[in-house]
């Protein structure tokens, strides 16, 4: 498991979003020897096949970031019962141009946070469908639909509720195991 690298992609662009906070909390639960790198998606242009022959610098940086990690952790909100367009756009860029996808066989974990009653279940279902189409091996279980009421994180960025933190630790441990097994 040593020297395992995890790319973290947050589907929300808002700096203080609950999903970015959840991503940082999950990273804080990673065991020693596992490195996390946030891969930003906010500066990617909208996908345009006309650019496949001369990829813009933000796209090159994004693709190199994904290619340079052993696994990817997606943390996504739900917008209008689906995944954010910015996240779908990033996945599209990573899969193009044809034959040059950075996704094929990459293990991934999926989580999301929302104050809504169903958490991010619909967004995650859509995301898993798209990830399957580009060859990502998403961890099937446990699913993380982080529903919260009130302020879920303390000043140090930790999840306030101990039972929830324990559940998230179980998810992180299983994801790291999945990533290590997939890499072997």
Automatic annotation (TrEMBL):
**Domain of life the protein comes from:** Bacteria
Q: Which chain regions cross the lipid bilayer?
A: none
Enzyme Commission identifier(s): 1.6.5.7
Q: What Gene3D superfamilies does this protein map onto?
A: 3.40.50.360
Which UniProt keywords are listed?
Oxidoreductase
Q: Which residues form the NADPH-dependent FMN reductase-like domain?
A: 5-148
One MF term from GO for this chain?
2-hydroxy-1,4-benzoquinone reductase (NADH) activity
Q: Do you know which InterPro entries this protein is assigned to? A: Flavoprotein-like_sf (IPR029039), FMN_Rdtase-like_dom (IPR005025), NAD(P)H-dep_reductase (IPR050712)
What's the protein called, per UniProt? 2-hydroxy-1,4-benzoquinone reductase
